[in-house]
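Hey, sorry to bother you again with one of my protein questions. I've been puzzling over a protein and I'd love to understand its fold better. Take your time with it, there's no hurry, and the full record follows here:
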Amino acid sequence: MDRLDRQKLDSLYRRYNNRRWAELDPIKFLYSYDSAADIEVVGLIAASFAYGRVEQILKSVERILTPLGRQPAKFLLSTPPQEIRRLYPDFRHRFQTSSELSALLVGIRKTLASDGSLEKAFAAAFAKKPNTPDALTLWRDAIFLAGDSKAGHLLPDPRRGSACKRMFMYLRWMIRKDDVDMGVWKCITPAELIFPLDVHMHRQAMALHATSRKAADLKAALETTESFRKIQPSDPVKYDFALARQGMDIHRNG
């Protein structure tokens, strides 16, 4: 595909944007839960660990979720921080250990207790800073503060220029609503989402002339978003999942 062609992108969307293609995507874990409270918690856990080999991602997320049971939000709220810290004594996902995982879970727990939900915490951040990267910064800072700041790499910081692919992907899962994305948050609209950009998607964005930046950073993600917004103003990240699945399909079939 050369450049951004809405007809070709819509054809790609119709082919790939369904749950059959989500079996190797961490979003699949969200499909096992019914309540928004559990979906937002499971989504943040799954997105936070969505780096590295896909097999290891799925294995790590499953291991984290198993002790949390069928109602992860309720479990975290009812479990003291010191007990949460004892749940995963030998956990490791690449260079993340049980210390970072526990800090994230405790941060989620305290945010749920103080704000009522992760969505309400993000809505409060967006009310103070009504643009998505700045609101994301305030939101992740609040979770870090609640969890004693040891979650580190798990929640990237937009202030450092990172593309923040995993966090923008999480927002896509929460805000958009279709066969793949959950759409359980109503605090912002799909129009305000930022394109989740990693090295692989950055290559595709450059090939489509959606960005001219050589680095897969926040500026490239914003530039890519603006390019897609020209053909899909109300939903600029609509084609993210389909483009990612197409890339995996081409790679798998050589």
Remarks:
- Strands lie at 92-93, 96-97.
